[in-house]
Amino acid sequence: MLSELVKKLLWYLSLVLVLIAIGWGLTVMTDRIEYKWYWNRVPQYFFFTGNIEKFAAENGKIKIQKIDEKFSQVFLTYDNGTEESFKVLTKSLAFKDGDRVTDIDKVGELQVLSKGILIEGLITTLELSVYSSVLGIIIGLFAGLGRISKNPLIKGLSTIYVELIRGTPLLVQIFIFYFFLGTILEFDRFAAGTMALAVFVGAYVAEIVRAGIQSVHPGQMEAARSLGMNYFQAMSNIILPQAFKRIMPPLAGQFISLIKDSSLVSVIALTDLTKAAREVITSTFATFEIWFTVAGMYLVLTFSLSLAVRYIERRYSASD
Amino acid sequence: MIRIDNICKTFIVGTHIVKAVDHCSTHVKKGEVVVVIGPSGSGKSTLLRCINQLETIDSGNILIDGVDISSRKTNINKIRAEVGMVFQSFNLFPHKSVRENINLAQMKVRKRSKVEANEKTDALLKKVDIEEKAHAYPSQLSGGQQQRVAIARALAMDPKIMLFDEPTSALDPEMVGEVLEVMLTLAKEGMTMVVVSHEMGFAREVADTVVMMDQGKIIEVGNPEHFFTNPEKDRTKLFLSQIL
Q: A313 in a domain, yes or no?
């Protein structure tokens, strides 16, 4: 029993050692090409501090109080009785204590924390993934039901849809959505990207839904119908809830893939995380640092999604 | 109550055409208990499934209370609500509790309120002697208990006719009795029943009419007395000698 534990510990230890060895190997190799690491250039693309000009709102009187070397607190008492107070950079101050200001005067500059382009890109990637997932589930649900329909028209259309999408590269689909459909239907970049991803993931969801429904014993549908429920009632109350539980894991895998696949929309100049990374690299030349950082950011997204799914799965399986 | 007129049902299995039901005609009177017997593959289950259109017939007519069930004008969901069905493999809804299993169609199809449905469900659970399991899930029940819940679920719709498709063949022998007992009670209460079964004891005791099928055809019809003492056809004699 104890020796089993020791053995296991030793294996974990070797895992750590192997990882360290790989890391060390990479360092040695980058040393050989004399790459200079500038990790300090990365954080500003997450958040940076910028200055914003601040103007007086009305005619009035200014009072200035120095806080420290850098900042001063400004109190504005307007003639109409209202007051305003903010913190500005001392050296940007255009007035002295006790001066009068008019409503077009620049008082000074505020320092604010802004989102860097990597965070902006991350948000775009998230928005893309969420919108296209929701749309994709709806498309996939109907296409999946269509695939098992007895009506040749519905079945044929869904089959053609699934085969077309699964048989062509996503990159090509994105181009078609942007250049062809986008031009005809006047989509903007974001709409084109979202639609392309939704239609793409919908085809895979359709196949998962179809398999899930077919995995529910046919006797379930017969029992529901024999009680007088119509097709829709039987599907929504009996078949889909059972199918949904089974398709949770593959569905989650599909949406994790979607987050990663969304990086392809950067080709239509949509500033997602990947496009943001490329923009940062053109101005910093910190190629390695940025790509490693971006990989880490994608990993945070996908890993939190898979944790969430694992939690939901556990909740679900506890219910029966 | 049920009039079956010259119906046919064929299945295509690979390249074979199987005549599962081949020009069958019979009828079931109100309050009558009909037991359908026959070797496996003789079409008795298919015949039963045709009665509530789980299988659509190729030709012929089935009238329930004078309504042609395969007519386009007929709302089949309405007919099915009047015809209860009990399956060999129970087919309870595994993601719903016993109570939800019995409540669901009452609320969705019969449009009863939750209170009304609960009342009905309680009464039925008492009838099938399984009151204490209302909150259990099907997987927590024995086969016999599951089948009794399935009967209660069908009865909750207040059906005029009950169809039983080999209700005891998937059960352990010691559980057959409890299910047959419930069916016996139903028969005594005057329920119209069509039962596909190999339980000859049940047939003998409860059936008003026994129907013998072989190779998709109804080959002999009679009362149990006739069947078990003096069957006419050699095929029937052979079948009964094998099964008894």
A: yes
Distance from C-alpha of A23 to C-alpha of A61, rounded to nearest angstrom: 62
Same domain for A124 and A256, yes or no, is yes
* Model confidence pLDDT, tens digit, residues A243-291: 988 898 899 999 999 999 999 999 998 999 999 999 999 988 889 999 9
Q: Is A246 an 8 Å CB contact of chain B?
A: no
How far is Cα A153 from Cα B134, in angstroms, rounded to an integer? 44
Task: HSE, CB side, 13 Å, CA atoms: give it for residue B162.
Answer: 30
Residues of B in contact with A230 (CB under 8 A): 77
Does residue A147 sit in the same domain as residue A251?
yes
Same domain, A139 and A105: no
Q: What is the pLDDT of residues B46-57, one digit of tens each?
A: 999 999 999 999
Q: Which of A228, A233, A320 sits opposite B137 (nearest CB)?
A: A320
Q: Residue A87's domain spans which residues?
A: 49-115
Q: Which residues of A touch B160 (CB under 8 A)?
A: none
Quote the DSSP letter at residue A67: -
Nearest to B108 among A217, A237, A241 (CB): A237
The answer to whether B209 and B35 are in contact (CB under 8 A) is: yes
Residue A124 lies in a domain: yes
Give, in order, the Cα–Cα distances in Å from B3 to each of A127, B61, B197.
Answer: 61, 8, 21
CA distance A197 to A202: 8
Tell me if chain B has a CB within 8 Å of the CB of A245: yes
Q: Using a CB-CB distance cutoff of 8 angstroms, which residues of chain B are in contact with residue A245? A: 95
pTM tops 0.80:
no
- The reply to whether A42 falls in a domain is no
For residue A101, the cross-strand partners are: A60
